[in-house]
Amino acid sequence: SIQSISLESAGEEPGYYKISFRLPSALNRMLRNVVGSCLQVAQGAMSLQELRSLLVEAPGRLSNSARPAPPEGLVLEHVYYDNY
After folding, report:
1. Angle at 51 between CA 26 and CA 2, to 5 degrees
2. Would you say residue 3 has pLDDT above 80?
3. What whole-number distance in Å separates Cα of residue 37 and Cα of residue 25?
4. Residue 61 pairs with which residues in a beta bridge?
5. Are 65 and 53 in contact (CB under 8 A)?
6. Which of 33, 54, 56, 62 has its CA 20 to 30 A from that of 12?
7. CB neighbour list of residue 41: distance below 8 Å, 6 or more residues apart
8. Residues of the chain with pLDDT > 90: what percent?
9. How far is the C-alpha of 3 from the C-alpha of 20, rounded, in Å?
C-alpha cells in the first residue's frame, strides 16, 4: 500500500511537477497507473468518482479504464532499506 504521495512544482516552467511516493513495495507499472489515472482526472477524461471506484473496487485490467502515464520523465531517485 502507498504510505504517502506528495506533489510539488518542479522547475521554472509551468506544467512540470515532482510526484514523490513512499511505499514498501510496488507492482509493475503501479506508479505509472496511479499517475496516469490522476492525469486523466485532471484532464476531465475520468471523474473523481471513477478514480475512487478504481481504488476501492480494484477491477481487473480488462474492466479498468485507467491508462498508465508514459515512462518518459519518470525517475527512480532513492530506494531505502530497513535496517541497512
Report:
1. 25
2. yes
3. 19
4. none
5. no
6. 33
7. 47, 48, 50, 51
8. 8
9. 11
Contacts of residue 4, defined as CB under 8 A and 6 or more positions apart, other chains included, come to 20, 21, 22
Q: What's the pTM?
A: 0.74
Grid look-up 471523474 returns 47
Nearest C-alpha neighbor of 19 from the set 75, 83, 68: 75
Q: How long, in residues, is the chain?
A: 84
In the structure, how many helices (H) and strands (E) does the chain have? 2, 2
Distance (Å, whole) CA 81 – CA 40: 33
Q: Which three cell numbers stand for residue 30?
A: 503501479
Q: Dump strand ranges (E) for 1-84.
A: 4-9, 17-22
Written as one letter, the residue type at 4 is S
